[in-house]
Design a protein that fits this description.
- The protein is of the alpha+beta class and 121 residues long.
- The chain has 1 helix and 5 strands.
Length: 121
């Protein structure tokens, strides 16, 4: 069983040739979306060059989808590759997380916060 590939079609926000988007089941912020590879693939490094080249367009589509429903001030975009990096699903998925002014006291350092003590530099 694959949580992403077994999702009912009504959960899919949109599809492209290589990816589909769904709302994150445990959203960090309202509008948090996931881009998932149509083909079972563990992470970024397992994508074909064609799939890697198609990902920026899918990110842009996710941003457009989010902006039609939410009015974020910024975004965090990222993926976890490997268990030690926090990957819990062995299927490529990229997070598109809308951010809003004031959602954290001090956003400086952004994704560097995945390792406590390294965010502020």
């Amino acid at each position: 069983m694959n949580v992403f590939l077994d999702l009912p079609e009504e959960k899919v926000l949109f599809r492209t040739e290589h990816f589909f988007a769904v709302a994150d089941g445990f959203p960090v912020t309202p509008g948090h979306a996931l881009l998932v590879s149509n083909r079972l693939c563990e992470d970024w490094f397992g994508l074909s060059p064609e799939e890697q080249a198609a990902l920026p367009d899918a990110i842009a589509r996710a941003k457009s989808w989010i902006e039609q429903r939410h009015q974020p001030d910024g975004y965090n975009i990222g993926m976890n590759c490997g268990e030690v990096a926090g990957q819990t699903m062995d299927h490529l998925h990229l997070h598109v997380i809308p951010r809003r002014t004031g959602d954290v006291a001090d956003p400086h350092g952004g994704v560097r916060g995945v390792i406590p003590g390294k965010q502020k530099y």
